[in-house]
Amino acid sequence: MKITVRREHIESARRKDSHHCMIADAIREQLNVQFILVDTQSIRFSDPAIQERLTYFTPPEAQRQILRWDRGIKVQPFVFELGSPVKVRPLKKQWTGKRSTLKKARDKYEAKRRDPMAPRLVKKNRPSKKVTRFREFGVRRWTKTA
Fold it and tell me: Has residue 55 been placed in a domain?
């Protein structure tokens, strides 16, 4: 499918933001999808009509334009082609993260209440697995910082 990035998409885009970039705006308008994430490696979005999350490799032309845009170089309107998706998965019906966290907290509280001398679990400092929406450094962060 062909995606056309027009002047309006470029003007309303935010630099180094994978949710509000010119390509995400063009895809949102032309394909009527949601939760769009665009970086130099992949383009991901959810299609509520078919109840699936689709992942595409970012085409070379789109990669070049993303890098130029994030570096502050003017970008002209362009067209690129999205091939077939490389990954398709069904949308989650319900997110269970909060419930599982709540259950762990309740279990820990109940264990302390039953035996105040029981050893308490110590949370180790692990690197954060949080994925950001900003394209800087790393896989989604290949551009020079301003």
Answer: yes
